[in-house]
């Protein structure tokens, strides 16, 4: 029964599909080639006559039109640079020529800097290659159609901007853009990374990377330098570099140094300092020295601070190493230094080295200590003084960096009397003499 029902359904669907196919063929055979569209004639229409229309003669009587288009070519004007320009004053290097000192300018929206001498032109250009396009100073100050001229008036710069058009006519309009005044700003370095001294990039850490240190005044040279070093009195000793290749300079407020390619050299501002990086001591405080550093052209400047280094030393522990034993003669005294007996005279110098205490005797040894090729605590035997009716041997200890000193007094046993102290003439340092333990010494103390 089910099979018969399915058979009838299939036959019906096949018959319906055939009828639809036949109908489609008949439509295709008898369809017309073109479909006619009805055509209608176009009628012309005219606008209604205005109630306010006048005859042509009335319009001709009006004359020139109230609104009339007129062609005018574009005119060149001075751009407004008042918010872009910054004025940093003159070249403040101590060696600058005051009769032809350049004025320094910069642009706020770029790293471009330039200088101009009063009376000369500083050219600018509009650089479309940058993103976004902006005004810049013309490279090598090549001539362009836009330039500025300036002169300093106190802490301001009177600026004049000019433009030359295609016909060669100089334009100075509008007036507000062409002439204005700029206040002077603090002169700072605006081109980080472009300035180097030696192998170091210039920034606030330059002195630290160059291993510059300051302990204070050189107390040893102030006391024993004599007339040869009198010009360093009251100045600060600045140490440069490490111990092996180090050097030093004595500086006071206003003193200048130049970079000669490998060292800082103290010089007076002048022809010898032109075209070189220059550093000047601006201020000396108790704990800090301030320097101003300029590049060779005076376009860049930076302020550097150097903090005072501290030195740890114990004069009391050093003093314990010296013990008076006896007087051998009126000008020779036996001391015990670190368990060894030595013979000293007034004005003898002893320096502590890796080999122990050594007396400086030759000119070469003395120069090495003065020039800090030999570094260490120094003991200077000053001689005999009278204190509380007693004979006392006096000396001075200087610290490793010679920035500190301490007076040392060694009591002379059985030297208290009412006699006066003998004055021993200054003598040249002699080589240090070792006194054997069984060498004869006298307890007699030099008196008059």
User: What is the radius of gyration computed over CA atoms, rounded to a whole number of angstroms?
Assistant: 49 Å
Number of helices in the DSSP assignment:
7
* Overall outline: elongated
The total of beta strands comes to 28
Strand content: 25-35%
Overall tally of structural domains = 3
The low-pLDDT segments are: 417-448
Mean pLDDT over all positions? 81
What class do helices, strands and sheet pairing give?
mainly beta
State the share of residues found in helices, binned by percent.
Answer: 10-25%
The main β sheet shows up as: 6 strands, antiparallel
- Head-to-tail CA distance between termini: 163 Å
Describe, in plain words, how this protein is organized in 3D.
This protein has three domains: 85-183, no CATH class; 196-307, no CATH class; 315-434, no CATH class. Helices cover 14% and strands 35% of the residues. Residues 417-448 have low confidence and may be disordered. By secondary structure, the protein is mainly beta. Strand 18 and strand 19 (301-307) form a beta hairpin. Strands 4, 5, 6, 7, 8 and 9 form a six-stranded antiparallel sheet that branches. A five-stranded antiparallel sheet has the order 16-15-17-18-19. The chain has a five-stranded antiparallel sheet with strand order 24-23-25-26-27. The chain contains seven helices and 28 strands. The chain has helices at 2-30, 56-60, 175-178, 206-209, 219-224, 315-319, 363-370, and strands spanning 85-90, 103-107, 113-116, 122-127, 134-137, 146-153, 156-164, 170-171, 179-183, 196-197, 200-201, 213-217, 236-240, 247-251, 256-259, 264-267, 278-284, 288-294, 301-307, 322-327, 333-337, 340-344, 349-353, 356-359, 378-387, 390-398, 405-416, 433-434. The protein is elongated, with a radius of gyration of 49 Å.
